[in-house]
Structure formats: structure tokens, C-alpha cells
Amino acid sequence: MNKPDFVPSSLYPAKTKRTLTLSFIAVLGFYLISSITTESFIINFFLKIGNITELVGRFFPPDWSYITVIYPKLFETIHMAVIATTVAVIISIPFSLLAANNITTNKWLYNVMRFILNIIRTIPDIVLAVVFVALFGIGAFSGIIALIVFAIGILVKLMSEIIEAIDMSPSEAIKASGGNTIQTIWYAVVPQILPQFISFSLYVFEINIRASVVLGLVGAGGIGQLINQRINFLDYQAVSTTVLVIFAVVVVIDWISGKLREGLV
Amino acid sequence: MIEFKNLSLTYPNGTKGLKNINIKINEGEFVVIVGLSGAGKSTFIRSINRLVTPTEGELVVDGENILNHNGKSLRELRKKVGMIFQSYNLVKRSTVLKNVISGRLGYTGTLKSIFNMFPKEDMELAYENLKRVNIEEKLYNRADELSGGQQQRVSIARVLTQKPKVILADEPVASLDPPTSHQVMKYLKQINQEDNITTIVNLHFIDMAMEYADRIIGMRAGEVVYDGPASEVTEQTFEEIYGRAIREEDMRGGEENE
Ligand SMILES: Nc1ncnc2c1ncn2[C@@H]1O[C@H](COP(=O)(O)OP(=O)(O)OP(=O)(O)O)[C@@H](O)[C@H]1O
Ligand SMILES: [Mg+2]
């Protein structure tokens, strides 16, 4: 047997290796520059671990007597999410149809709807809350409005995509038998999207519960407001009670709504 | 009566779907339109209920030129002209009954139809029509639980529930096997005879055309190239319409397997 004239020394060609090495150096450099300019080094986490453990200690044990204060605000949070989700669902129905190109065949109208939708979706929920708190003052009302706008952005996006994927042939049949536009949508479109629509609405409800906690931090009502207040009073034991309650409620609501959604699709 | 007067249709992209058609279809006739793929059969049929709009000439249905119909008058036209589709076009997640009763939507107010408030006579009519096509025991089944032939029968019941004067059928058996195809054609023929509903069917099987039609219209490249009673049609006629020899795929066959 003669010696092979070439033995590959690597699994990758030299060019790939070079590209990989260069990318690796670039990413590493980027980390360094970012850390220097923002003066936040990951290493701090380990240097300050002492502070952290000391602070965490102050959260324990949770102050269970605080629960009586939490309850009303907890229900406020749930109410906010329920109202916001319901209103958002109702408003989303016509807009989902307008943002679906198989229903809204007018190109101009469709593009305007998509444009508005994309703008809404670029605004984070917390920014919406800050804006509405500035407009309507501190309290649950501002939070609800922020949640509605936020939820509409998500729902219309998800729903219009589902609508665009439906089978249009039944619509043609209803149209051809003399049904009007609303009847066509109700009989030929709605049955095809209803299960997903309910499922998405529950999903948005879950998101709204979590979002409304965060919104409270900027004064938009609900249980988040308590956390903010207690932290300011350095009452960390009450904060940990609140966080535990929120955790339990979110888990329970996610579980229930998850079960409901499973049964639907 | 349906009358095409110098009727032409040019699609927005410039394709000529129909070229100067002059045809009269009498009440109660069973007309089969044949022609190769792209000949303009669907365009012809879909002009009659204005799913497409001819660009020149006149199209008279029931004494009115339908080319300028819109909104309400268009819906009135479509109540009179029912349609059956190749892919049945049922709402698959809805029940058979709900699909059939949807034939009444043209007669029902928007609000009433949203709350499913159909008059008792309409429900009775829907059920009677399901019985006519022998599928009444599937009343509450979801449409997607039915076989293709059963779904097409449901779509026949739906069109009957609309009480049309004309039934258009665009390749109603193209997705079905031979025995089921004959079964569906027999229902259409029977309804045509019992109710005197003018029936216009697109088919590309010449044996079926000869068996069920009273009259055959042959199309090629948007033009009517043959029009005559089915009794006078021979394979030769089809070769002229198609502009080529008859092949195996032009025959549905299979009636004896029933
Ligand atoms: N929406 C449309 N836009 C442009 N051209 C079209 C459109 N629909 C049909 N055509 C063209 O018009 C001609 C006639 O089409 P039509 O669908 O009426 O034929 P057909 O006889 O029904 O054919 P098939 O047997 O394949 O269904 C074809 O050349 C087709 O490509
Ligand atoms: Mg066709």
C-alpha cells in the first residue's frame, strides 16, 4: 500500500476556520467595548456577591401579615387584565379582518392597517404605561388603556396571520349564494378561526396579567404599585410576600388558561 | 332564460377568457360545457353569477342584463343562480346542517343570520333537501368527517336550499372516483328534471357529457366551437372540439362498477 498523498488535518476547510476565528475575535472585541463604555463588567456580579447575599437576606422571612394589603391590589391587577383583554379582543376582530390581505382586498387600506399595526407593536408596554399615566394620571385606568393598546398589537398581528391562511373556498360559495359580506365572514371565516381566536385571547390574558404587574411600577395601578411603594420604604419582607403571591397567581392562571387552550386547538 | 349577446371577457392581464359569445340557454335545459383545460369553461359559467365580469356585450339572465349589477342587485341575481364547485367549498369545521342552511343566507337578515335564527320553514327545507340526496343521517356531523362524494351531495343540498332557478356546476365530479361521479351526476340530472332547474355543468369527460346532457356546448380558446343536442354528438365531434384525437383520460368510465 502506498502512502496517501493527503491526510486532512481538520474537519473544516481552512477558509471556514479563518472566518470562524475572525468572527470570534470580533464578538469578543464587541463585548469588551460594550463593557468599557457602559462601565458594567460581568465580573462585578462576583465581586459584589457579598452585597447581594446580604440584601437577599433582608427579604426573609416574608411578612405574611402584609397579605391583607395585597389582596385588593391583586384583584385590581386581575380586573385590569380582564377588562383590558375583553376590550382588546372586541376591538381586534374588525382590525384583524382589515389587516388580512385575503379579506381586505383594497391594497391601500391593507397597507395602512399594517403600517399602524407595526407602529403599535414597536412600542413596549412600559412606554405605553408611562405615556398614559402622563395623560390620565396615576391609577388603574391608565394601566388598562396601556394594556388594551398593547394587547391589540399582539392579537391583531396573530389573528390576521391566521385569517390569511384560511381556506377561502367556502367564502366563495356563500358569496355565490347571495350572502352579504358580514354573512360571508360569519359563516365561512369565523368557524375556521374561532378556536385559535379564543386560544390567542387566553394567551393575551396571561401576558396582560404579567404586564400589569410591571405597569404598576410606573404608577399604572395594580399590584406592581405596591412593590414600588414597599421598596421605597425599604420594607423588603412585604416585597417578598408580594412577589410570592404574584408568582402563585401567574402560575395558576397560566395553568388554567393553558389547559383551556389545549382543549381548543 | 340565459342569453349571451356578443359577450367577451378580457382578464386584467390581457388574457381573453371569452370571445364574442352568442348563446341562448332555455329554461329547464341540462347543458354540459366541454373543452380542454384553459378553453374558458369556468369563465363562461362564472360570468352567469358574476364571479367574473365580462368586459363587452350583454348577458341577460331572467330578463335583465346582469353586467351592471352590484351590491343588492348582484346578491338578488346570486340567489337565483346557485353554484356547485369542484372542491365542494363547504365550511369543514361546521356541521352538515349549518352548511346546508347557509344556502338561505341570501333570504335572511344579517342580524338574524348572526344569531342562527332561521325560520322553521327554512330548517324544514334544509332537512328535506338533505333527504333528497340521501344524507340526512349525517345532519350533525362535521363536514370534514364526510367522504368526497358525501360532501358534494351536501353541497347539492345547500344549493337546493337556496331555491335557485339556475344551477351552475364547475367540474363537480373532477375530484371523485367513477361510481361516485355518476351518483352525483344522477342527482343533478334528477333535480333538473323534477324541479325544472336550468343546469349548466362543466365537464371534461366526454362519456359523461353524452350520457347526462340535453345539449352540449364545446369551447376552445374562449370561443364556442360547437353547440348542439347531445343526441347528435359523436366522438368525432369531440375530436373537432378538442382539436386532437380522443384519449383514455377524456373518459370517466366506470358506470358498470356501481
Ligand atoms: N383570474 C384570471 N386572470 C387571468 N387569466 C385568467 C384568470 N382566470 C382564468 N384565466 C385564463 O383564462 C383562460 C380560460 O380559463 P378558464 O379557467 O375559464 O378555463 P377552463 O376551461 O375552465 O379550464 P380548466 O379545465 O383548466 O378549468 C385561460 O387561459 C386562463 O389562464
Ligand atoms: Mg375551469
Automatic annotation (TrEMBL), chain A:
Cited CDD domains: TM_PBP2 (cd06261)
Query: Which Pfam families does the record cross-reference, listed alphabetically?
Result: BPD_transp_1 (PF00528)
Name the family the entry cites.
Belongs to the binding-protein-dependent transport system permease family.
Keyword tRNA-binding listed? The answer is: no
Pinpoint the ABC transmembrane type-1 domain residues: 74-257
Query: What is its membrane topology?
Result: Multi-pass membrane protein
Name the UniProt record assigns to this protein: Phosphonate ABC transporter, permease protein PhnE
Identify one Gene Ontology CC term for this UniProt entry: plasma membrane
Which PROSITE patterns would you find in this protein's record? ABC_TM1 (PS50928)
What residues form the membrane-spanning segments?
A: 20-47, 78-103, 209-227, 239-257
Among InterPro entries, the record links this protein to:
MetI-like, MetI-like_sf, PhnE/PtxC
Give UniProt keywords alphabetically.
Cell membrane, Membrane, Transmembrane, Transmembrane helix, Transport
- Say if the entry is tagged with keyword Membrane: yes
The protein's location, in the record's own words, is:
Cell membrane
What is the organism field in this record?
Aquibacillus koreensis
Can you provide one Gene Ontology molecular function annotated for this UniProt record? ABC-type phosphonate transporter activity
Superkingdom per UniProt: Bacteria
UniProtKB/TrEMBL annotation, chain B:
Could you give a GO molecular-function term held by this entry? ATP hydrolysis activity
Q: Which domain of life is it from?
A: Bacteria
Q: Name one GO cellular component term.
A: membrane
| Keywords carried by this UniProt record | ATP-binding, Cell membrane, Membrane, Nucleotide-binding, Phosphonate transport, Translocase, Transport
UniProt-listed PANTHER family: AMINO ACID IMPORT ATP-BINDING PROTEIN, PHOSPHONATES IMPORT ATP-BINDING PROTEIN PHNC
Which NCBIfam families has this protein been placed in?
A: ABC_phnC
Designated name of the protein: Phosphonate ABC transporter ATP-binding protein
- Which species is this record about? Aquibacillus koreensis
